[in-house]
């Protein structure tokens, strides 16, 4: 009777463990799908070309200039040309985005009191990579003829005008007017809400931001780039930024070469098992950043989501361990139980042929 109870408990334990593994897989996929960037590499590679999404973050005091970014672009284009991948019919084969972050004091025509807001100063295809929901109007890009246009978030619109229907109106930064091109609603996932912050936010072109902050430097550079083989985009951005050494370590966040303080991250592979395992094994280290990098809200969103996914993966590993141990015990028990019977049958078969 006791043996039957123990056997039932083992079977139930295996079933529960397998259910945990199945549920964990689904939960990790759901977490990855909840991110605000919404897989820009998949949206860009709609024609079937495999692409990767890679981001580089710079220490606050080691940011780069627009001239540096233009140099990156030329180098990345040259790499593709040498690999026989060229633009066809003026269609770009990769896109990029650059940004930096700060604050500004703004006021509106209805609410003339000054409010301090967070500023994301952008260039390139920022809103393709970070497609926050447009409530009214449109996005801005570095190709705009009017650099004095801004995108504001829903909170800023309500604070200044009591409405989100404010496209075409303007706000003041100091004594300069900036026309509102659009109003966005930030991503509403739990991780995004937690990392976005309570302060209102506006988005303006980097050129315009330089006028109110002359010392501003680019602290984030992102690319969506052909990824013909695993980590191709990641390795080529490392190489372009001078972060690559003679023995590159794939998928690592930190590099130890010409620019050791730049963090280059393969965003496309962050939720793979191998990447999440590195999060588990580096527990505690990621909380002790001493390199001077201030991560933007979306990177903090990724990190928060990674932490949850890593905990889920660890639970799955424990469940797999339970399944393995119980399977070994079950196999050994069966071996002991049926060995005499199998041995006897083998002897009988041998006697028949003898």
Oligomeric composition of the shown chains: single chain
**C-alpha end-to-end distance:** 42 Å
Mean pLDDT: 84
Q: So what's the overall shape?
A: elongated
Portion in beta strands:
15-25%
What is the β-strand count? 10
Count of alpha and pi helical runs: 10
**Structural class assignment:** alpha+beta
Strand order of the largest sheet: 2-3-8-5-7-6
- Low-confidence runs: 245-257
The major sheet is characterized as: 6 strands, mixed, barrel
Report the helical percentage.
40-55%
What does this structure look like?
With 354 residues, the protein is an alpha+beta fold. It has helices at residues 2-33, 40-44, 66-82, 126-129, 154-161, 190-196, 206-212, 232-241, 273-281, 297-353; strands at residues 51-57, 95-107, 115-124, 133-137, 149-153, 170-173, 176-185, 201-205, 220-226, 263-266. It has two domains: 2-31 and 310-353; 41-269, no CATH class. It has a six-stranded mixed beta barrel. β6 (170-173) and β7 (176-185) form a beta hairpin. α9 (273-281) packs across α10.
Summarize the entry for a quick read.
This protein has 354 residues and is α+β, with helices and mostly antiparallel strands. The protein is built from ten helices and ten strands.
Top keywords for this entry?
about 350 residues, alpha+beta, 2 domains, six-stranded mixed barrel, elongated
Question: In terms of topology, how is this protein built?
Answer:
Blueprint: H1 2-33, H2 40-44, E1 51-57, H3 66-82, E2 95-107, E3 115-124, H4 126-129, E4 133-137, E5 149-153, H5 154-161, E6 170-173, E7 176-185, H6 190-196, E8 201-205, H7 206-212, E9 220-226, H8 232-241, E10 263-266, H9 273-281, H10 297-353
Parallel strand pairs: 3-8, 5-7
Antiparallel strand pairs: 1-9, 1-10, 2-3, 2-6, 2-9, 4-7, 5-8, 6-7
